[in-house]
Specification:
This protein has three helices and two strands; from the N terminus they run ααββα. The protein is mostly helical and 64 residues long.
């Protein structure tokens, strides 16, 4: 997945993804100055941080 695709998928900002990358929470690969994520790494990230996303989603008024 490209960085923009993951932003849309997670409903997160580019800065949020940058924080996850910098902290080592979200694995990524850089090719030709573009950031990409393996689907398996994104799935692992979601498994370990699912509650955090659900809480943010509920705070914004979304359905769980």
């Amino acid at each position: 997945l490209a960085n923009q695709d993951l932003c849309q998928l997670l409903q997160a900002s580019k800065r949020s993804l940058q924080r996850y990358r910098s902290s080592g929470t979200l694995r990524y690969q850089m090719l030709w100055h573009k950031i990409y994520y393996k689907e398996s790494d994104v799935q692992e990230f979601l498994r370990t941080h699912f509650n955090e996303f659900e809480q943010k989603k509920e705070a914004k008024g979304g359905k769980a």
